């Protein structure tokens, strides 16, 4: 038996040094030292040995077992080192290869325009507030003095969501929401998306506005004019002048449309040098609607102070961004084409 042990031992030591992978090493270990391995199978016969022989054989068996284990351990370490070296070789980095192109995102031009407007007007003390895009018909229309019979309330212009609920057609209802939930003085800007059933090169069913509202005792038309002049100079340059033309919006009285001197061709008084596609040689560009808050709105807001007054304005953000960046088609804003967006 001692001879057989020696044979298994010698053969094993030789075989181990030739194993090439960690898996075959483990398989080999099981085939020799495992429960059903060669060594165990041989030692099962020990019961038949005499009492003197048994301890001797046991000792020899242990010695071989230790030798085999030691050889397995040493070879395992060798294989592991080799595997690591191979891995390092495979993962070698070629620093001369060109790098992958990385793309950095930019803010959408409408977000940029919104932030620019908010930033400049916040210097006059305006705070930003927002309202929901799904709005009640009452807040979108009735409360801002747009009567049931007004054409804007017809199916062709408004997206109706259900009984008494619409997609807001302008940001003006946020004026009302704010007045109904806070007392004055108020100086707010309400940026956000608005919706109208309109779709062509100059109208989108989805676009953006910023509503402005300033309510306090003694607010006058001159405050409106000063605020808008400041906004125009901040946005289009310090040379810019504004012009107020009488107009009608149900939520203001008097109401005005506001023009700025054409930033492309006019200077000072708004005399365009032409030829200019943007202002069509008039030297003026219409940019927003505004006016003094209609007293009817204060009633809906629950403000009954006789000395209260205020002004409001509504700016189309797309229009401002188109003017600032020379963007020719409104639809470019919503296509998500990176070739367009990358330019900003
Ligand atoms: N709500 C108007 C619109 O969507 C814009 C507007 C005009 C807002 C005059 C105002 C304003 O606050 O005073 O066309």
Q: Topology, pairings included?
A:
Elements: H1 2-18, H2 22-33, H3 38-43, H4 53-90, H5 109-122, E1 127-128, E2 134-136, H6 137-140, E3 160-162, E4 165-167, H7 172-181, E5 186-195, E6 206-217, H8 221-236, E7 242-247, E8 252-261, E9 266-267, E10 271-272, E11 284-293, H9 295-301, E12 308-316, H10 317-325, H11 338-341
Parallel strand pairs: 1-5
Antiparallel strand pairs: 2-4, 3-4, 5-6, 6-12, 7-8, 8-11, 9-10, 11-12
The structure holds 3,4-dihydroxyphenylalanine (DAH).
3,4-dihydroxyphenylalanine binds next to strand 11 and strand 12.
In short:
Helix content is 40%, strand content 21%. With 344 residues, it is α+β, with helices and mostly antiparallel strands.
Overview features:
single chain; 344 residues; BirA Bifunctional Protein, domain 2; binds 3,4-dihydroxyphenylalanine
Write up this protein.
The chain is an alpha+beta fold. Helix content is 40%, strand content 21%. It has eleven helices and twelve strands. Strands 1-5-6-12-11-8-7 form a seven-stranded mixed β-sheet, with helices on both faces. Helix 5 crosses helix 10 and helix 7 (172-181) crosses helix 9 (295-301). The model has no long low-confidence stretch (mean pLDDT 92). It binds 3,4-dihydroxyphenylalanine (DAH).
